[in-house]
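Researcher: Sequence of UPF0304 protein yfbU follows. Predict its structure.
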Amino acid sequence: MDFFIYTKYFTLSNSIDNYYIQFKGFDFNSSTEFKLALYAQFFIEKLNRFQEIVEDSDFNTFNSHKPMRGTYIKFLENYNDLKSTNNYQFGNLSYEMISKVLSL
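Model: Prediction complete. Tokens:
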């Protein structure tokens, strides 16, 4: 979730549409994703972590209405690949790096 927070407030010279960097939740129709959604909701609402997600005017639910787990796993794999490069500095991602993580 740190990635979503970072990209949301990162000023880019080449704009990335908010749709791509917004946390969309998980699919409530999948038992696995439903559990992940409940965990994310608990983490955000009860533990008061990542409040920026729920304060975002575009955020309206933890239910994505479509499978997202695979997408988030791909983002994480792309991010881990990026971290293994010499150009990576924590908290300093370029437009190109963010685009690579998001597979745009």
